[in-house]
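Q: Make up one entry.
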Amino acid sequence: MKTKAKKGVLLVQLGTPDAPVAQDVHRYLTEFLMDPRVMDIPYLGRSLLVKGIIVPKRAAASAATYATIWDEVNGSPLMHYSILQQKMLQEQLGEDYHVELAMRYQNPSIESALKKMEGMFLDSIKVIPLFPQYASATTGSVIDKVMEIMRQWQYIPSVSFVSNYCEDEDMVATFAEHGLRHDISSFDHILFSYHGLPVRQLGKVDPSGELSCPDSGCDTCKIQTNPFCYVSQCYATTRAIANKLNLPKDKYSVCFQSRLGKTPWIQPYTSDALHDLAKEGKKRLLVFSPAFVADCIETLDEIQVEYANEFKEMGGEEVAMVESLNDDPRWIQTLKKLVLSN
């Protein structure tokens, strides 16, 4: 039966291995790290580094970590919540819209999702990368891949992209509500931990090539210099959530996790922040991770296991994690608003 949908929505998440086994993790990491927007070095060096060193060394260990968060029924938490988000948004938008879910890396691929949409002869397609803050390595890569595929189409409908929503009021309110599920006053400090990037990628958002960013970035670039600065958007999200919760400035701080390799990444590193807070005598920490709209290996393992154990070894007592947006109905309303906005 011919669909009634005239408008398409493509939700794109980062990706996840098909299964928590070394072979699937190897394939996932290779595709992810070989993306020139993720590892922005010449192809030969990137290939030697990724295929010859990083992936062979990390695949088995990463598979073991994935196995600890994998659910027997629902599989990958990231995939589980992403599918729920897609289904709930479809229900909210109704039959005039067709909502597809894709992963930038692995399955379901952007190519397979767009193939379905191509045969529907839609009037328009709105692409929403599921990353609140813009970065070339995430949102930029999604947009790049979509355009690469769609330029092969013989007809091209109206296409639009949501590049960021780092200060969206409803998204901020949902994160704040999730924070209030915890007794915030009982924690010594609040950390806002974002996924890190190599420092060299920060200045690349300036086409002139003249923007030089410090290792810690800055919190004013979004306003004063370039609205697409990733670090500045992270600070903007943090300020919005902190203001919603009426947090005093000395009660919270920003840090960056998931560093890879020896080149300088955005600082302060989450690990260093934990060390400094432990030295100050802080015992109980609450962590927001507003770069992720669904719980995943970075929130469920890296923060709640790896960093929590590290903090305890330093004399701390607890690292508690604020739940991600997941299948919260207010987050689905946020997505609906992004779809309907011009």
In short: The chain is about 45% helix and 15% strand. The longest strand covers residues 7-15. The chain has two domains: 7-165+329-340, 169-321.
